[in-house]
Amino acid sequence: MANTDSLNIRVFSLNCWGIRYVSKHTPQRYAMIGDMLCKEEHDVVLLQEVWSEKDYLFLKKKLACSHPHSHHFKSGVIGSGLAIFSKHRIHETFLYRYSLNGYPYMAQHGDWFGGKAVGMAVLKFGSLTANVYVTHLHAEYCRDKDSYLPHRVVQAWELQQFVRHTSVGADVVILGGDLNMHPQDLGNRLLLSYTGLRDSYLEAAKFDGCENGMTLVADNPFICKKELAPFEKGIRIDYILFKGSSKTAVYCDFMSTTKGSVPDHPFPYSDHEALTSVLRLETRAETERDGPRTSKNPDSAAGKAAELVDIVTEARTEVKVGLHCAERMRYTASRTGAMGLALLILELAIAAVPWLALGAEQPFPRTSFYLLAALCFAILAATALLYVFYTMELKSLQGAEDQMRLAVGSLQEKLRGFPLAQPHDAHLRPPGGQGPGVFKPEE
Amino acid sequence: MANTDSLNIRVFSLNCWGIRYVSKHTPQRYAMIGDMLCKEEHDVVLLQEVWSEKDYLFLKKKLACSHPHSHHFKSGVIGSGLAIFSKHRIHETFLYRYSLNGYPYMAQHGDWFGGKAVGMAVLKFGSLTANVYVTHLHAEYCRDKDSYLPHRVVQAWELQQFVRHTSVGADVVILGGDLNMHPQDLGNRLLLSYTGLRDSYLEAAKFDGCENGMTLVADNPFICKKELAPFEKGIRIDYILFKGSSKTAVYCDFMSTTKGSVPDHPFPYSDHEALTSVLRLETRAETERDGPRTSKNPDSAAGKAAELVDIVTEARTEVKVGLHCAERMRYTASRTGAMGLALLILELAIAAVPWLALGAEQPFPRTSFYLLAALCFAILAATALLYVFYTMELKSLQGAEDQMRLAVGSLQEKLRGFPLAQPHDAHLRPPGGQGPGVFKPEE
Lengths: 443, 443
Fold this sequence. Notes:
The structure is a homodimer of 443-residue chains.
Chain A: E1 6-15, H1 26-40, E2 44-48, H2 53-62, E3 69-75, E4 79-86, E5 90-97, H3 111-114, E6 117-125, E7 128-136, H4 149-166, E8 172-178, H5 186-195, E9 198-199, H6 200-203, E10 206-208, E11 216-217, H7 225-228, E12 234-235, E13 238-243, E14 248-257, E15 275-283, H8 298-356, H9 366-415
Parallel strand pairs in A: 1-2, 7-8, 10-14
Antiparallel strand pairs in A: 1-15, 2-4, 3-4, 5-6, 6-7, 8-13, 9-13, 11-12, 14-15
Helix pairs in contact in A: 1-2, 4-5, 4-8, 5-8, 8-9
């Protein structure tokens, strides 16, 4: 083994279920979470659903000694609920808001108001640059008929884009959060295959926690057993993912989750289980470098590209389903709006007839007239807003689909073994008669 | 000179002013633009304000031979208006929507509906990876009293974050578009200082175009002279920016702009002038590498950090002004809403009095009653929507301010000469008794 230096980093992730006045025992649970974090002194703490600024400030104060660096990502109306606490200085943060995130009129689900996003923080572990991401995707309310699936798939698509493009210079990449996706769900496969991130649970040398790494378990007293069906024991939707770089190898030595209850406490930290991963970072020897990035085995690279084509194609299909659905909704909104307008015109016409037949008595009861007019205006205003909203949804879905088509095209070209970047006319104008050797297309 | 191979890349940027049924001579101008692009065969064409999908498809068809690769970035209700045409294959695209972009009720300005964003495309120029960005920031309607300034500053902040974080792996970075900022404007300084991007106009060895590189000129017949005041001759708000990397040096050999008219045509391409930059990419010799990234002169690095601190602090101040303004607007919305509610309750009370005094005649004229009730409901609905909107604006402004504060803190620590990344407890557990030498904090 060529690696000589190693650094252990402990990462914690928890969906705090911090909806003020709705979630149960919120203040007590935050106090418990604060005590535990203060004691455990993880290097990086990634929290979701810290909806209230007050709760964040409570934790910030409580963790001032153990985790002096923190950031609360702000987005949407009440969100994004994402927070990071760190023992290491946070040098920078950056937030990417997902373009799709449910519907504002689905207030009972509330996701839209949360402004779901992925937050990034640049940390230094010694001399290593670490890009740490925390995110929370749209919830799944009904697995059999999941109307939010296209939105979640687009979120996963944007998440992988964001992580991939912003983490090029990082030595270590860590992503934690509530993805609201089962391990084999499309979005999860998209994320892992495209970014090369590895799942702590699957990689851990040793694991201590719920069966199958589940993070939403029937044993948790805050969980409604009915909602878990048909997954009686629970599901795994929270993750800590990681990857290294050409310079740094990352291993997961140990992973643990809470098990639905906390010893010596009347209730658990949250309705989700908390995750802890112990990552070991090792600097690669010079000879090892460039290994993991540019695969030396062309067959494996081709296999990977083929797998990606399949997954992205599957995602495109899902986005197209979303597109049809959004188009239908927009059509319904415009038709309803047109009916509202027609009704208004009809009403005005009926009212105008006696008015034009000078002096004739108004047969239209005044109360009905005004109520109907108000109804028409309300319909017009609501459908106009919905039309604008659905148009924005359509644009985002079309945008994601375009990007996916482009990515599949590029992957397929790679697969066909064609040069990756054959320009039509590369404008090669080598000065001094030197050949364009350096600028040959790759491969 | 250690560089031996060079590649010339011609980049074009134009704000097309493509508002269907509003902009003048749109179809004719698109035909002109298409003809010119087809003939000129630039490597990369960056267009803004291509609002209509139809117009994009028209160009796509027209440029099928000269620029077989293209992408139209979709965002907002009618936007984002951003398009890229390329001779080189576009491998991937990614879109970042700015979190702030005007107000939906300012329909006459329309920016909100455009969903302003920055689009990124990954291209290959031979073996070189190029990240090409196209963007369009919020317009400036009144320079003296620019109520959109905080929004534009936040857009510039997010733009620099996006470019900086996504371009680490690129050999060449090109950014073109209508920034709606004068060269010395805060947002422009923020963008250039933070990213290290260089301005084609200032760097060009040779320039041919409008005086001072202006891109919105009085000589353009589509320009209303009044709106330019006090800049009688024009302003420079469109840019082509670029930078190289440790592997590649980039120089601007030539830059040109159109001059308010196009020979042999009755009108110009747009109300903005078109920009063309000829960039020369040269591979750096091995010995030269790492030069431009890690400055060898600590004084210059400190000077740069100090300059950044000043600029970010200035930006923070501007964002705080925006915060106060948004808070005031939200307060006004909630107060108006409360008044609407009070009026409704009062009205119901007045109407209820005779109803309770059984049989007494209703003194409230029915027409007034219904009209007043409708007005109250309209006020309540509108103020509720505005309250939600302003809360989202506040969240975004607070988020940007938090990020800026964090960045200033990190820069100041760097300036003070303290170690950049001193973890409180680095968890150094070197196996086999080896020292933690590799993991020393930087500097």
